[in-house]
C-alpha cells in the first residue's frame, strides 16, 4: 500500500554519540543529542520499514515501531551494526568518537596520586566505511558529515572514502547539536542539493521519502 512503501524492507540506523571510557567514572564524548537519527528511524518506520536503531547513550524515547539496540562505545556500536545485518539500507547518523583511550583504567584515577595523567588515544573503527566496503553492503548506504567549515567539499571527499551513496552534510557551526533544526546538503555522485533550514523532523521526512524513491525505483541510487 502507498502509505507503507517500505514494507518488507529492513533499514539500519545509527544515532547518538558514543562514550569512550577513560576510567570507570570518566569518558570521552561529543555533543550529539541523537535527535536527527531518532527522527529518521521514526520516519522510516512510519513508511513501513523494519528499523533497527543502534543508539549511543541518549535521553530520547524510542520512536514507534522501531527496534532499538543500546550501546555505549564505538566498538559496541560496530558489533551491534554487524549483528543487525543484512539490511536493504543503512543510515549512519551516529557521531561516533574518532578516538578512545588506549588503556581505560580499571579503577578511578586519583588526583591524590600526584602528577597529571596523559591520555594516550587510539583510533576507533570507522563503522560506516567498514559497512560501505563490506560484502554485506546494503543497497543504499547513507552517511552523515557534521562539519563547521567547507561542508560540501568535505562531504564529497567522504563519499568515496566511506563507500557511501549519499552523504548528508550538516553545518554544525550554529546550534544544530542538541537543537531542533538543521541545515543540510544532500551530496551524491551526481551532485549536491541544498535543503532549506528546517526542523529535524522535516529533514527526516524528506530523507525518508528519498530513501523510498531510491529503494523502490528500477535504477539504483
Ligand atoms: O569521518 P566522519 O566522522 O566525519 O564521518 C561521519 C560519518 O561516518 C557519519 O555517517 C558517522 O556515523 C560515520 N562514522 C562511523 N564510524 C566512525 C566515524 C564515523 O560510522 N568511527
From TrEMBL:
The keyword Magnesium applies. GO terms for biological process: coenzyme A biosynthetic process; pantothenate catabolic process. The keyword Flavoprotein applies. Binds 1 FMN per subunit. Pathway: Cofactor biosynthesis; coenzyme A biosynthesis; CoA from (R)-pantothenate: step 3/5; Cofactor biosynthesis; coenzyme A biosynthesis; CoA from (R)-pantothenate: step 2/5. Its EC number is 4.1.1.36, 6.3.2.5. GO terms for molecular function: FMN binding; metal ion binding; phosphopantothenate--cysteine ligase activity; phosphopantothenoylcysteine decarboxylase activity. Keywords: Decarboxylase, Flavoprotein, FMN, Ligase, Lyase, Magnesium, Metal-binding, Multifunctional enzyme. Its cofactor is Mg(2+); FMN. Residues 11-221 are annotated as: Phosphopantothenate--cysteine ligase. It catalyses: (R)-4'-phosphopantothenate + L-cysteine + CTP = N-[(R)-4-phosphopantothenoyl]-L-cysteine + CMP + diphosphate + H(+); N-[(R)-4-phosphopantothenoyl]-L-cysteine + H(+) = (R)-4'-phosphopantetheine + CO2. GO terms for cellular component: phosphopantothenoylcysteine decarboxylase complex. Residues 6-213 form the DNA/pantothenate metabolism flavoprotein C-terminal domain. CTP binds at residues 98, 108, 125-128, 144, 158, 162. Catalyzes two sequential steps in the biosynthesis of coenzyme A. In the first step cysteine is conjugated to 4'-phosphopantothenate to form 4-phosphopantothenoylcysteine. In the second step the latter compound is decarboxylated to form 4'-phosphopantotheine. In the N-terminal section; belongs to the HFCD (homo-oligomeric flavin containing Cys decarboxylase) superfamily. In the C-terminal section; belongs to the PPC synthetase family. This is Coenzyme A biosynthesis bifunctional protein CoaBC. It comes from Sphingomonas dokdonensis.
Amino acid at each position: 500500500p502507498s502509505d507503507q512503501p517500505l514494507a518488507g524492507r529492513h533499514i539500519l540506523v545509527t544515532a547518538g554519540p558514543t562514550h569512550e571510557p577513560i576510567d570507570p567514572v570518566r569518558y570521552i564524548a561529543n555533543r550529539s543529542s541523537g535527535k536527527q537519527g531518532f527522527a529518521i528511524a521514526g520516519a522510516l518506520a512510519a513508511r513501513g520499514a523494519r528499523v533497527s536503531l543502534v543508539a549511543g547513550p541518549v535521553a530520547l524515547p524510542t520512536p514507534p515501531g522501531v527496534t532499538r539496540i543500546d550501546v555505549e562505545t564505538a566498538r559496541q556500536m560496530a558489533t551491534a551494526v554487524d549483528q543487525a545485518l543484512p539490511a536493504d539500507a543503512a543510515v549512519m547518523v551516529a557521531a561516533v568518537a574518532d578516538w578512545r583511550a588506549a588503556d581505560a583504567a580499571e579503577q578511578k584515577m586519583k588526583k591524590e596520586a600526584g602528577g597529571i595523567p596523559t591520555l594516550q588515544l587510539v583510533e576507533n573503527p570507522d563503522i560506516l566505511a567498514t559497512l560501505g566496503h563490506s560484502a554485506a553492503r546494503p543497497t543504499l548506504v547513507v552517511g552523515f558529515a557534521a562539519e563547521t567549515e567547507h561542508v560540501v567539499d568535505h562531504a564529497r571527499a567522504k563519499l568515496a572514502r566511506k563507500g557511501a551513496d549519499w552523504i548528508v552534510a550538516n553545518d554544525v557551526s550554529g546550534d544544530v547539536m542538541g537543537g531542533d533544526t538543521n541545515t543540510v546538503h544532500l551530496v551524491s555522485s551526481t551532485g549536491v542539493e541544498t535543503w532549506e533550514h528546517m526542523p529535524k523532523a522535516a529533514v527526516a521526512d524528506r530523507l525518508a521519502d528519498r530513501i523510498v524513491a531510491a529503494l523502490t525505483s528500477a535504477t539504483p541510487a
